[in-house]
Amino acid sequence: MAIQGECPKCGKRVLHVHVEHVLGMVEGASKARCISYSCIHCHAVLGVQMDPRAKPRARRKPAEAD
Ligand SMILES: [Zn+2]
User: Fold this and answer.
1) How far apart are the C-alpha atoms of 11 and 28, rounded to whole Å?
2) Which of 36, 34, 35, 44 is nearest to 12 (CA)?
3) Between 34 and 60, whose confidence is greater?
4) 6 CA from centroid of ligand 1 (Å)
5) Domain residue spans of the chain
6) Is the predicted pLDDT of residue 64 greater than 80, yes or no?
């Protein structure tokens, strides 16, 4: 199956993305860990989402292993 996705900026196929950890800002304060995906060719950001592995701080079981 060929990968059909193209970068909207440079038009190259998106075969790989850079994955970077970024912080979501809410009213000027960093509140959420997020992940951004950017094109490896031109570094255009293709998408950002909440980090599904991030845990809210100091919840009930802080010592729980990953
Ligand atoms: Zn690109």
Assistant:
1) 34
2) 44
3) 34
4) 8
5) 17-50
6) no
Integer Cα distance of 51 and 33 in angstroms: 6
Q: CA-CA distance, 15 to 47, in Å (whole number)?
A: 15
Dist. CA 43–CA 29, nearest whole Å: 25
Maximum Cα–Cα distance for the chain, whole Å?
A: 46
- The mean pLDDT of the chain is 86
Total Cβ atoms within 10 A of residue 39: 20
Q: What does the buried/exposed string (b/e) look like for 16-33 if buried means 16 or more CB atoms within 10 Å of the residue's CB? A: ebeeeeeeeeeeeeeeeb
- For residue 31, report the distance from its CA to the centre of ligand 1, in Å: 29
